[in-house]
Each structure stands twice: as C-alpha cells, then as structure tokens.
Specification:
Elements lengths: L9 E5 L3 H11 L5 E5 L2 H10 L5 E5 L7 H8 L10 E5 L5 H10 L3 E4 L4 H80 L1 H14 L6 H30 L8 E4 H11 L1 H7 L2 E4 L4 E4 L1 H17 L8 E8 L2 H8 L7 E8 L31 H11 L3 E7 L3 E9 L3 E2 L18
Parallel strand pairs: 1-2, 1-3, 3-4, 4-5, 7-9
Antiparallel strand pairs: 6-8, 8-13, 9-10, 10-12, 11-12
Length: about 450
Amino acid sequence: MSLLPRSDIKILVVDDREDNLYSIEAILSKDNYTIVKANSGRAALKILLKQHDFSLILMDVQMPDLNGFETANIIYERDKLKNIPIIFITAYSNDEDHMFRGYKMGGVDYIYKPINPELLLVKVSVFVDLYRKNQQLQTQEKKLLAINRSLQKEVEERKLSEAKVLDLNEQLTANNQQLVRMYEELDQFAYMASHDLQEPLRKIQIFSDKIIGKGLNDAEAENYFQRIMTASRRMQSLINNLLDFSRHSVDNSKLERTDLNLVLRDILSQKEIEIEKTNARIYCDKLPVVSAVPALMQQLLSNLIGNAIKFRKKDVDPVVEIRSSPMSPAEVEQYLGHVNGSTYMKLQVADNGIGFEEKHTQDIFKVFKRLHSYQQFEGTGVGLAICKKIIEKHGGFITAESIPDKGSNFIIGIPFSKVLEPIPIMGPSTKKVGEEHS
C-alpha cells in the first residue's frame, strides 16, 4: 500500500505570535503540507474538537492564558487525540527541567528558537513519515482483522457444513443398516415362499393326485381330504403370519399410557383355557406403566407367554415368571454391547421349558426361523420376530438366555423415559396378576 501524499498531511501550528505562525507556515509549505494555525491554546483546543486527523502538532511553550504544556495536557486527556505527536517550540535551550516537563506531558521532541528551517523540515519529515507508516499499519491491521473475521466466519460455516455432513453420514449409515435389515427380511420371505409355502402345496398336490383317477373307498378319501385340509390351514397360517409381520409399525401419535399389569391380565384371561389345560402356573411382579401402543405390547407379551407354555417339557407343568426391575448401566452394556446413555426398565419372561442352545440366541428372532419342526411344535416361526420388531419400534431391545432342558429367560429393555408412574387399581384386581392360575 502506498503512503499518504504530503498534501493529505495536516499539521496544527500553535503560537500566540502571528509572525511565528506565518514563518513556520512558509517553511513547511515547501513540502506541500496542509497547515492549520491557532494563535492560542484555547483556539487550538476548539479546532481539535472538530478535527482529529492531524499528523503532527507544533506547539509554542510560552503562551498567555494556557501555555503549551497545559494545552498538551488537555489534548492528551482525549482518547481521539492522545496519539498525535507534539513537538514543543521553546526559547529555553539546555534547560533539562523544562525539557523533562515537556516529555512528561507527552511531547516527542523540541525545536529551539530561533528556528532553523532545515532542522524544522527534517524533524517534521521524520514524524510525518512515522505518522504515515502508522496509518499504513492501522489500515493493514483493519484489513487483517476483516480477513480474520472472514476466515473465522468461513471456519464456523465449514464446521457447520462438516457437522451437517456427519449428521447426513450418520443418517445414511442408519438408512443402510435399515436397508440391510429389510434385505434380510426379504431374503427370509423369499426362503419362506420357496420352501415353507412349497411344502404344504406339495402335500395338497400329492393327496389330490391320489384322490383323482383312483378308486378309493370312503375312509381312504376322507383321510386324504383331511390331510389336504391340514396342509391348507398350515399354508393359511403361514400367509397370515407373513402379513402380520409385514404390517407391524409404530406411529408416535398412537403411543398412549399403557399399564402392563392390565395388559397382562387381559392376556391371561384370553389364555385361560390353555393355562388350565396345561396346568400352567404364572407368577408376576408389579409391572410398570409405559408409553406404548397397547395392542402391540399385548401381542409382545402374549407371544412370549404363549411360547413359554408351548415349549414345555413332557410331563412337567409349565411355570412362567414375569419380573420387572430397573437396568443398571452394566446390564445395558452386557445386553447391548455398549452404553448409549439411556436408562432402561427390564422385563423378564422366564420359563422351565425345553430351552435351546446359546448359539441360537440370535437366530430365534429371525422371521420364519424355527429350531424344531412344526410336527413337534405348531407354529410358523414368526412370533419372536414380531416381538423383536415391536420392541425395537418402541426404542427398546429384546434378547434371551437359555440352557437346553432347563428353560429360557427372555429379557426386554424398555427406555426409562417411556416408563410412567403406575395407575392405582382399586378393588379385588389389586391381587398379583396370575394369582388365580398359580
């Protein structure tokens, strides 16, 4: 950046004698400075009230009313003026006390009378150059500050952009994981369509072929028709379960206060005949109230209790225990493999049934995955997959622990934020749920 031209340099000359003012003006005019004159300290102060852009002040020390030192002291009390250098003009040469006072007032130099024109020009030129360079530095500083603000803004915008990219990446990762799960489900559906549905179809075709074109007596025909009906019902059950699994979703607008004690009471009422038939005993703690879709929570618990009764051991009465307790961070990490900052309420549905090997823990929650043939145990292998889908849609998780021939324990984790205060139940219904079946 180029320095200011000399015509833009303003110098204030203060002296009570007109001849001195004109003399100094004549000397400095050679360098094309802009000269402003004041014939007293008060006149100088009035000028400085309106004009602050002086590069230098030449101040006579000996003036009536306000002398040069007093005027300088008032000038330097103002923030806008305190950086203007002042050269004192004095007739007192070699007076150290006088010089000390001037420097103490903020003066930068002295010129002694009678004034040497060349010395005046040199000294003024030095301080003018300092002023011009100082102005240049201030301009550069302003530019650097502006650049710094611009860079800071750019950095902040870049950080915001990076944060958005991270959010998008996380969302993309979540979407990819969802797509992987959907692909796995579709793959399982394809397997079901090509295998599980084919099996009852083949039986229908085989038994139909035996009936058509062969002379069968009534008993043989009835037997084949019964088998066709059985295969048809199994196919219908598979299709219904397939539709049931594909329809499960949770809309937040449908979440409501759900007392699991009341949900369990309805389930046990519906399964009353099955419970009596198998001589099942069901015990239950006091369960929490959650924010959930009641019908889905009912299906979740109904499937788990139904499985506990279904997969019972021969000649042993099924026992089902339903417990509830808060989960510690250590338990959350045990089941999830990490701590995500959420607090969970734990529901457990434990039984004394046939159990399963630990290596099948993940497989049992896959759609249409069965550990036993349907001839051994009825069903399509969709129930636990539905349980997993329901609880995950509510923000929770489900897993299981089991030992073959010792029983199974299904653990459900529900985020604590979804657990509400229980609703008091008045009257006889305050008995433990399942007490009448124990």
